[in-house]
Specification:
Shape of chain C: globular
Strand content of chain C: 15-25%
Chains: A mainly alpha, B mainly alpha, C alpha/beta
Number of helices of chain A: 11
CATH class of the largest domain in chain C: Alpha Beta
Number of strands of chain A: 4
Structural class of chain A: mainly alpha
Distance between the termini of chain C: 41 Å
Radius of gyration of chain C: 19 Å
CATH superfamily of the largest domain in chain C: P-loop containing nucleotide triphosphate hydrolases
Strand order of the largest sheet of chain A: 1-4
Largest interface: A-B, 42 and 40 residues
Number of helices of chain C: 10
Oligomer: heterotrimer
Helix content of chain C: 40-55%
Chain lengths: 298, 338, 253
């Protein structure tokens, strides 16, 4: 039983990371109907920004404050990166065919990965430890301080996001745009600004995830965005792409099932499980768990 | 018969080029091995690009898991050659060596194509009901799953990859199948069946309303497309003599998509052009090493912004030639296909 | 028995009853008009008949056979064809190809024979090309056969949609606002065309239209919908005088 609970906690921790990244995918898809393939790489950039930021703090005592500071720097930097990507690469092709958008996203993704390899070097770097480490033993399970941080910070960010989307004017505008871009424009909403905000938010969350993961698994490399990005994307689709609570649910489910499969079955199937779930869901319930059915008007 | 003569000419021409390039005719004319390899890989890419264009460009279905079918073709063809190749060769002892090799290759490719087409059917039937983006995601997922499944089959090497594949493919075979692929896709597209595919691309709802069996048509084109990808995979395996699942990830699928988008979706000659351009660019920029991919991805984004329909769009290369001739001498307002 | 029969057909979207307990029957050769204010459910009726939607409840019979819930393509192949409110042509294809595609649903050739270019296939192609061109001649579009459908002027596009639907050899033709965007002269030509189709093929025609001159000009029976329910059925003269109809269109006095 305790092993199961342990796996559950591990799964929730991993799932929170996936959820944070998945939120970016889902929000961008909501407003633009674009699968932002470059999003996983923004997550990678976030980890690297955090890396360089934490190097600056070298010498100081590891503390919660410095950890949060590093994360904040990464979030701001990636928020700006997200806005830049949108303005330079996606906005010019916004009205084009879906496949064109897809190729553009792939192009941006490849660009980020290869530019990172060029600028940061292809070899993995090691993230310094920022916060004091501790292990907690509760009910026979071992909880690391990193896991607790991941879960706590993720929950905090998700709550803040929900508040933002539901209660603020900008958040309401975001929801309007995700229903209908054209109608929102007609209502006087500055859709370009809203789309930029969406990208900024999604990228900031991905950056937070990048720093959080780097704190847990200190090895970072320019291609780390690929596996996490792909699975987070699957999580977004599982939950219902375009649905914010769906992204969270999807992330937690994918994280938990991945940990369970590795723990109880075999690690070689780890990557396949995410896609397996994805395909089952799409065939049985294409709109995802919490998504809306989009009927085409004839 | 006109068709038979053209076919004979093509085969003869390819045999000649093959002998020339490999130095069998006159060692002085042989291509440097590196160049020959690039040429051969380009030929395989042509097969992949043209076959993918059938489903993406002509039928308008968003499939990004093509590498998975290539993988199935590669591995199954390779497994046949490695396991049963010798036995078959022995049974055909009365034939000259090159014919025996050819026979083994053809059987291997047939098996690869067959299994790939079955996979295409299994993937296609549930997925093709889904619209646009969802289809893309599912095909991407299937491609990855195929990779993981192959990884777990020890008989074909698992994570270490599959080596010891006999080198049965060469310039001749690769370009022969590239030409065959172009012929097959051309025939499919310029037929009543091809019309229904384009109709589905233009407006699937309307196509259905006009009595088209849309799901059946989509699945058939998907199966044909994956079979051809399987052949490309088989040729790939028998040329490089070693395959690894890592060659068949979604990155490979993306590469093929980039090729057909550059050339122009819905244009067969566009796919050929795109495949050749792609490999020229990636090889030509090789000396720039790290800058190569950065430049390339930048170029890709710029291309999408500036000319999203690719170089040829929906038109074939031939159209440009005939259009100029028509405007010079022909009467205006001549109707198109009658 | 009626050629097309709807009995107590209901189409519900969540809490909205787009079509509510609709009874409708059309005989061969009948010109039947379906009118009503915007949002009355007219296009939904079309979508339900042609299989785009499955009715929530009720019975739809074509030539005595129940077709509710069948796939769109299957219903078309039975003999029910339609045009669309927003023109849905195959833009990149030529005018001739647009019609050929609709003919193809009755063809016998498969992919195999197509790839091998058998003599049978070539004969079939010739036949289809000829018949398609004949059909275009009827609709006075044959001179545009090689043009891309998206390049046609609006009026021609509407005619092409009807020609294309006719190529499926239907026995019931559903026309969704065929006169939309037409000037008075084009409308008159359309009316003649519709009447001609009915006379020549003994076609049952169900017409959704906002253009009252067209509806009242050619329809024998006019069926008025409002909020998904029938409020009147009858010959044009009677409908025009019906106070319930007037109220639905103009609101209460």
């Amino acid at each position: 039983m305790t092993t199961f609970l342990q796996q559950l906690v591990n799964g929730l921790s991993l799932g929170s990371i996936y959820a944070l990244i998945a939120l970016g995918y889902t929000m961008v898809y909501g407003v633009l109907r674009l699968i932002n393939f470059a999003h996983g790489d923004v997550y990678m950039v976030g980890a690297y920004v955090g890396y360089y930021a934490s190097r600056r703090l070298q010498g100081r005592e590891p503390s919660i404050v410095s950890a949060l500071l590093v994360m904040l720097v990464a979030m701001v930097a990636c928020g700006i990166l997200g806005i830049l990507i949108e303005r330079l690469a996606y906005r010019p092709v916004r009205r084009e065919a879906r496949l064109t958008l897809l190729i553009t996203a792939i192009g941006v993704s490849l660009f980020l990965e290869n530019a990172a390899q060029l600028v940061f070097g292809p070899d993995p770097k090691f993230f310094p430890s920022l916060a004091p480490r501790a292990d907690f033993h509760v009910a026979g399970m071992r909880l690391t301080s990193e896991q607790i941080t991941v879960i706590a910070v993720s929950v905090l960010l998700m709550v803040l996001l929900r508040f933002f989307i539901m209660k603020t004017r900008t958040g309401k505008a975001m929801r309007a745009v995700s229903f209908s871009l054209d109608a929102a424009k007609l209502m006087g909403i500055s859709t370009d600004w809203i789309i930029s905000v969406t990208f900024a938010l999604g990228s900031a969350l991905a950056a937070a995830a990048g720093v959080l993961i780097a704190m847990q698994i200190p090895k970072i490399d320019p291609l780390m965005g690929i596996p996490y990005g792909l699975k987070a994307f699957v999580a977004a689709v599982l939950g219902g792409i375009g649905s914010v609570p769906g992204a969270v649910l999807g992330g937690l489910l994918i994280g938990t099932s991945e940990v369970m499969v590795v723990g109880y079955l075999s690690s070689t199937y780890r990557d396949a499980i995410a896609f397996g779930i994805l395909i089952l869901v799409l065939i049985l319930r294409p709109q995802g768990l919490l998504g809306r059915v989009q009927k085409e008007k004839v | 018969m006109r068709g038979g003569l053209a076919a004979a000419l093509v085969v003869a021409g390819l045999l000649l080029l093959n002998a020339l390039f490999t130095g069998a005719l006159a060692p002085a004319f042989a291509l440097p091995p590196y160049l020959l390899q690039v040429l051969c890989l380009a030929g395989i890419n042509v097969t992949l690009a043209v076959s993918l264009n059938l489903i993406n460009g002509f039928t308008g279905q968003f499939s990004i898991g093509h590498a998975g079918f290539m993988a199935i073709g590669a591995y199954s063809a390779a497994y046949f050659s490695v396991t049963f190749g010798e036995a078959l060769r022995a049974a055909l002892g009365f034939l000259p060596p090159f014919a025996r090799d050819g026979a083994v290759l053809l059987v291997a490719l047939a098996i690869g194509a067959f299994l790939a087409s079955i996979a295409g059917f299994i993937v296609g039937v549930p997925s093709l009901r889904l619209r646009g983006d969802y289809l893309a995601i599912v095909t991407l997922g299937f491609g990855e799953i195929i990779g993981v499944l192959i990884l777990n089959i020890d008989a074909v090497g698992g994570a270490r990859g599959y080596s010891g594949i006999p080198k049965l493919a060469n310039f001749f075979w690769i370009y022969l199948f590239a030409a065959l692929t172009i012929l097959v896709v051309y025939r499919v597209v310029h037929s009543s069946f091809g019309r229904t595919l384009v109709a589905i691309r233009e407006d699937e709802v309307a196509a259905e309303a006009m009595g088209v069996h849309t799901t059946r048509a989509k699945v058939i084109s998907f199966v044909v497309s994956s079979a051809l990808a399987g052949i490309a995979g088989g040729l790939f395996a028998h040329y490089l003599m070693y395959v690894n699942v890592r060659s068949f990830t979604f990155l490979k699928s993306f590469e093929i998509i980039i090729m057909i988008v550059i050339g122009g979706l819905g244009s067969i000659s566009g796919s050929v052009l795109g495949a050749i351009l792609y490999i020229s660019l990636t090889e030509g920029l090789r000396e720039f090493a790290q800058y190569r991919m950065v430049l390339f991805s930048l170029l890709l984004v710029i291309l999408m912004i500036v000319r999203p329909q690719g170089i040829l769009g929906h038109k074939e290369f031939v159209t440009f030639l005939t259009k100029r001739r028509r405007s010079i001498g022909a009467a205006p307002g001549t109707p198109g296909n009658a | 028995m009626a050629l097309l029969q709807l009995s107590r057909v209901t189409m519900r979207f969540g809490g909205l009853y787009a079509v509510n307990e609709l009874d409708l029957s059309i005989d061969a050769g009948q010109l039947y008009g379906l009118i009503g204010p915007n949002g009355a459910g007219k296009t939904t009726v079309f979508n339900v008949i042609t299989g785009v939607y499955t009715p929530t409840s009720g019975d739809i019979r074509f030539d005595g056979v129940a077709i509710a819930g069948e796939r769109c393509g299957r219903i078309t192949r039975r003999g029910v064809a339609r045009t669309f409110q927003n023109i849905r042509l195959f833009g990149e294809m030529t005018v001739l190809d647009n019609v050929k595609v609709a003919f193809d649903c009755r063809q016998a050739t498969t992919l195999g024979t197509a790839m091998l270019r058998t003599a049978a296939h070539r004969r079939e192609e010739e036949r289809v090309a000829l018949e398609s061109l004949e059909l275009l001649k009827i609709f006075k579009l044959d001179h545009l056969a090689g043009e891309k459908a998206k390049n046609l002027p609006y009026g021609n596009q509407r005619r092409l949609e009807i020609a294309r639907a006719m190529a499926t050899a239907p026995r019931v033709l559903l026309l969704d606002e065929p006169a939309a965007g037409m000037n008075p002269q084009e409308s008159i030509q359309l009316m003649d065309l519709i009447r001609w189709i009915r006379d020549r093929f003994r076609m049952a025609i169900l017409l959704v239209e906002h253009n009252m001159r067209v509806v009242m000009g050619i329809c024998e029976t006019v069926h008025v919908l409002d909020y998904g329910s029938t409020i009147a059925i009858g010959p044009p003269a009677q409908i025009q005088r019906d106070p319930k109809v007037i109220e639905a269109y103009l609101g209460g006095a």
